[in-house]
Design brief:
88 residues, mainly alpha, 3 helices, transmembrane helix, DUF3618 domain-containing protein, membrane, transmembrane
């Protein structure tokens, strides 16, 4: 398998049916693992969001501060609402 191909791709030009079946099975298992590995996908998504947030903060510090305040207010409102529901 070429290093340029992703793990979930089957290389072209395999003439042996056994080798082709093995390559297809390997690609299918890699695709299933990629789709089912939720912790790894969460880490990747968190890293991507973190990079994007840092880039946004570099471009627009005032907007980033306003967004942080907005998120804090939203989280506070949710916690307050849950506490109020529990207290009833």
């Amino acid at each position: 398998m070429s290093s340029e191909l992703p793990d979930t791709a089957v290389p072209l030009g395999i003439s042996d049916p056994v080798e082709k079946a093995r390559a297809e099975l390997k690609a299918a298992l890699a695709a299933i693992e990629h789709k089912a590995n939720l912790p790894k996908r969460a880490v990747i998504a968190t890293d991507r969001a973190s990079r994007e947030a840092r880039a946004y903060a570099q471009r627009n510090p005032a907007g980033a501060a306003a967004a942080a305040v907005g998120v804090a207010v939203a989280v506070g409102a949710v916690v307050w609402g849950i506490a109020r529901l529990i207290a009833r």
